[in-house]
Design a protein that fits this description.
Elements lengths: L2 E4 L1 H8 L3 H11 L4 E4 L1 H11 L8 H14 L1 E2 L15 H9 L4 E3 L3 H6 L1 E2 L2 E4 L1 H4 L4
Parallel strand pairs: 1-2, 1-4, 2-3, 4-6
Antiparallel strand pairs: 5-6
Helix pairs in contact: 1-2, 1-3, 3-4
Length: about 130
Amino acid sequence: MKKSVVDANVFVSTLLGGQVTGRITIALFEHKVKLVYSNDLLNELKYVLKRDIFEFSNFDIERIITFIEANADFVEPSGKIFVCRDPKDNPVLEAALSGKADFIVTGDKDLLSIGKFHNTVILTPREFLKFL
């Protein structure tokens, strides 16, 4: 099973009704993809999902958070990485490196512009579907 870091924007897109990202989230729930996550990424996800602009239900937020807490391989990054233009993106790379992830799945253009980080390929959700 391929190990993947799934960026917060994928979960946001799923809750907004995104079909492609929804298929990825379903694959996570069906354990077809092994999720690699860190506490930094989980805290960022919680913050993003609870932003007033989205108006997501507490049920939907808790369902995703609870699933991640119970099923992800949590890693503790061994060090800080300073690669991304936006410093908020570096924890994604840190988790991928520490968790030896095969993929990072994201809609973030800055991360996507990197293409590959060590042995981790960075893909859009649509590109990632080819590997499911």
